[in-house]
Amino acid sequence: MKNNISIWSFTGGAIIGSIYFFIPTDSPLIMGVHAYKLISAGSFLGLFLLLLYLPAHPAKSSLLFTVGSEMTIIISIISDVLKDRTSHNLFPFEIIVTSLMILLPAFAGAYFAELIKYLKTSLFTSTGRKLD
């Protein structure tokens, strides 16, 4: 079961990182929303939902999620550079910024899910009745 959680974390990160493929070069808006906001919100919600329903270590899942996203983003950067050599001339900074934009919300989502699970179990044991 632990390997399945690692695979889900990595795959979820790769799916969220694939948003980077759809960022236009002239404007970072996707359907009127800033693409980086979509990536950050997706990493928060992805880890939150994953760890809310599956037992996993939050830090390890967050790091695997970030690695999956970064691999997809690096593939996107390589693909764009092969098309046009002048694009992504500041790619190290792109990688650092996107890492932070994915890692911090992923940690927040993972630990928020752990907090909700902890509160649910502590309320269940303190009241003696089952929560729905």
Taken together, the total number of domains comes to 1
Average of per-residue pLDDT values: 81
**Runs with pLDDT <50, length 5+?**
none
Indicate the radius of gyration in whole angstroms: 17 Å
Helix and strand composition category:
mainly alpha
Shape: elongated
Strand order of the largest sheet: 1-2
Gap between N and C termini, in Å? 25 Å
- Work out the number of β strands: 2
Largest pleated sheet = 2 strands, antiparallel
Total number of helical segments? 4
Q: Kindly estimate the percentage of residues that lie in beta strands according to DSSP.
A: under 5%
State the helicity in percent bands: over 70%
Series of H and E elements? HEEHHH
What does this protein structure show overall?
The chain has 132 residues and is mostly helical. It has one domain (2-127). The protein has helices at 2-17, 35-53, 58-83, 91-127, and strands spanning 29-30, 33-34. A two-stranded antiparallel sheet has the order 1-2. α1 runs antiparallel to α2, α1 runs parallel beside α3 (58-83) and α3 packs antiparallel against α4. The chain is elongated. The two termini are 25 Å apart.
